[in-house]
Amino acid sequence: METITMTLVQEPELFLECYSVTPDLFAGKSLAEIADLPAHEGKIQWKLGDFFKFEGKAGETAADTKIVVNGNVRRMKRFGQQMTAGEIIINSDADMYIGGWMKGGKITVKGNADSFLGIAMEGGEILIEGDAQNHVGSAYRGDWRGMSGGLIRVKGKAGNDIGTAMTGGTIIIEGDAFIHVLTHAEGGTVIIKGDVEGRVGGQMVKGDAYILGNLLYPLPGFKKVATVEKEVDGATYTFDQFIGDLGERKEKKKGEIIYGNIFLKK
Fold first, then answer.
1. How many whole angstroms separate alpha carbon 139 and alpha carbon 10?
2. Domain of life, per the record (predicted)?
3. pTM exceeds 0.90 for this model
4. Do residues 1 and 55 make contact, with C-beta atoms less than 8 angstroms apart?
5. What is the 8-class DSSP label of residue 140?
6. Do 100 and 88 meet the contact criterion of CB atoms below 8 Å apart?
7. What are the DSSP calls for 210-230, one per residue?
8. CA dist list (Å): 197 to 160, 208, 213
9. What is the pLDDT of residues 56-104, one digit of tens each?
10. pLDDT digits (tens, 9 = 90+) for 156-191
11. Parallel, antiparallel, or unpaired: how do β-strands 87-90 and 65-70 relate?
């Protein structure tokens, strides 16, 4: 795998949309061609080379291309948007929409990520070594299609609206989360190893939520049906299993009703 290192030399005055920073768009290009790729600051179009210097070499394909981002890019958005392969490593905090609509490859953020991480993600892997904000793996606002595949892992805590309208894939939050987990979900798995304040599974049709800490305010649309043992992220725990949301439409498979599940660690 070939590596392109991009180092911040000029911070934007506002926030910069870095949608061109993907292995797909870097692959097969020279350093000068990469520096000419567009970025937006509001309605003003810039070039990536106006803010970064570039070293190294891109691979011939996205799968053969790694991008390393150096410098404080906490005010830069959309790294890895719609990428299908390859790797991006961001050595600082990053702003919103990291890995949005991602289909493959891997993104690692060595710091924190802002909101809308991995929205509508279809595949690949995102690792956040710090915290994430709101709408992890959710649908874009006004849309009903959330994350459908892939893996998002946040080593720290996260905010609200995790996995909204999710249909597949896995989200792992190793710290605490706030409210609204798997709202409107029709599939997928969310694992929260810390505490959740409440509103887990509201209007859920299908999907699985695993809460290893405390759930402060459970929703009334769920009922306990069993105590089970489950393997979660490489370890086995005993859970109380709740099904719901009982107020929502339910499908049948081989004559059995399919429910969403909340598993609360005993």
1. 32
2. Archaea
3. yes
4. no
5. P
6. no
7. EESS-EEE--TT-EEEEEEEE
8. 10, 17, 10
9. 999 999 999 999 999 999 999 999 999 999 999 999 999 999 999 999 9
10. 999 999 999 999 999 999 999 999 999 999 999 999
11. parallel
